[in-house]
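User: For documentation purposes, I need each entry recorded in a consistent format: the amino acid sequence on its own, followed directly by the corresponding structure tokens. There are two entries in this batch. Please keep commentary to a minimum and don't merge the entries.

Assistant: Recorded as requested. Entry 1:
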Amino acid sequence: MRYASAILGSLLAISVPALALAHGFGQRIDLPVPLYLYLFGGGAIVALSFILLGLSSGRLSEALHAYPRFDLMRLRWFRALSSRVLLLPLKVVFVVILLSAIASGLWGNQNPAFNMLPTVVWIFFAIGVTFASALLGNIWSVVNPFKALYEWTGILLREAGFTRKQNVLPAALGVWPAVALFFAFRWIENVSLMSSDPRPLAMFVGIYALITFGGMAMFGKEEWLRRGDPFSVFFAFLSRFSVTDARDGTIYLRPPAVGLIHQKASFSEMGFILLMLSSVAADGMLTTPAFQNIFSSLIGYGLPWFFVGTAGLAFLFAAFLAVYYGFSFLTKVISRDASSTMEFARRFIHSLLPIAVAYEIAHYVSILVIEGQRALYLISDPFGRGWNIFGTADYEISYTILNLKILWNVQVALIVVGHVIAVVIAHAIAERFFKDRQKAFLSQYPMLALMIFYSCLSLWIMAQPIIAIE
């Protein structure tokens, strides 16, 4: 019975979501040097960047505040691309993709590999839009098909003379509704055993649509999207790292990450950012041998997977909250500043977003490249009915398209660069917060320790599919 429970627990832990097969690599390779050297080297680079910041002259925050930016609306081709004439067909395309994917989930082939819904949700939405938001800007605010459907429905209702008084979303709620719904999304991704099953997934999308339409109807479209919708909040946070900045009715091109410096988060926004970090870490951490053994033991005692998986996801969120708050307290103690620990936590939370961006890209890039190939045959047969609309239905996924050793080194570089950027952003925030360069530098020792800890943890999680015993 013990061995059966262990096998069951391991299978549960490694099969969610089934579509993503193996996060990161999917097979074992030999690292050119031991893992601890990667951990030491990554931590050393982060520490070196901190030392160089301390030796540099001038106020970093002032230099980053006066960053160069270029008004993209001055370019004729960009104005054409962003005009309503082109944006409307783009919105129609995304609405058609959404409705087709839901229809495929309900009535198409129920094998996830031959149904377009899992690929649309987990590959092109959860990964593709995330990458685009972090690197290019908040494209979701433009192409959001749920928003478009609500706007078009609203036009029809107003034409019919139907109006409804909207309520006020209490300010005290902050973005906690979005936090709860984003946790639910990550639960579906990491815990639910039906995350890639087309029909249940279509039901999940339908429930989200009802919540979204209801929230916009009750509290107003913009207010709900700004504070209640998990994905609008998620992509808005990621876009602060991107190279574009939409303000004053125009769009500017800017250096990456500078949009994080002058942001101050509320407590609920701090919680959302930490949930971003903990939940994407959970996607890799919960499948490590250490967690698999814990899950197997708990399931062996008769606890259901629903409870065990949910507890694991919640535990990591609570752990990230506790660790970050603890390091914020150390920052307060070392700086001898009169501000509260919560004030420190809220001030520096945006410096963790580069870590979230780097880990999102490093963790999911291989899945996007490998599993994204499914679109080539699904576009010809979206319902799995044997069609061949565009002549690509016989395409076979190439699992050797990525060199795993090169991919590992790229992932290491992404993790380290992300943490170095986080150190720079934290230092710039400290300079502006304390107004005293020496005090700002001293205050960052706890944050440096936190960045090194996160970088080593990220590299360890990324390496587990490589070094795990077969």
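Entry 2:
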Amino acid sequence: MTESKIKFGLVGAGAIAKAYVQAFKSSNCGELVAIADVRPQAAADLAKEANCPSYDSHQAMFAGAEIDALIICTPPVTHLEIALAAIKQGINVLCEKPLSIDSLSARKMLKASQKEGVLLTMASKFRYVEDVIKAKDLVASGAIGEIVLFENAFTSRVDMSSRWNSDPKISGGGVLIDNGTHSVDITRYFLGSLAKVQVVEGKRIQELSVEDTVRIFIKSNGGVMGNIDLSWSINKELDYFLRIYGSEGTISVGWQESKYRQSPQDDWVVFGTGYNKIQAFQSQIDNFSRTILGQEQLLITAEDALASVEAIEAAYAALQQSKWTSIASKAA
């Protein structure tokens, strides 16, 4: 391990992996030295852009490259196998969300990392967005009083008919596990441990075998309520993805602008320029690297990752048990 930069390998050469390649170009602490994918041409093409060797499997990468850390960007059903193989080699693991498709697999990963003394965490880019961190600081400062209601929306129209994300055998479910993993993690970031969850599925538009629109209701251990909207089939046309309503004000974290307003003031105070994907990925890489070097703590721990898996697992159970109360009406 070098003192200057942590050497990373990357497994998977899809869209998320391409974002990591861009982020590494400006990373202060991490260096991408190898890329692997079961599609050799995809690995070679991305490795050419990253100026590093390519491999046709994670096993070949481990045999041919010296790496300190691994980023897993493959479909969720493969996460357990790849993570355990890396951990056995003494390699620190940053795994894309969801950490795994069920809590049993997640616990196996966590137990293995503890046994081997390596880091394990789940990638959750929204925790690393600068405006999200500023919003957390505003909450901690008491600027909006006590949090009463937390709202999150990740909705957009995306054709999922031919994507692995909508194949439950590969992804573990639909939009609930895909987008929802980000949602429950960022909710925990602001509200702490979650106590209860209820989920209602919307009308399926894309004729998928999985849910494409859901609304989640969450209550934290502190009694704060949260609402989450997820969809691949509608766009709520919102300029924000987080709204935090407090007893003395409101915070809005947006795609292009973030702001807050304190009661009884009429004017909003702008505190950020919104979501920056590459910045978030770079900050995530640097935090992981500095933690390996013993310079700081993980923003998302392995325990946080496991808690997200458990929350999504509970959400699917709630989805199956959802009960509606009929409205009695005697109107003519």
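Summary note for entry 2:
The longest helix spans residues 302-321.
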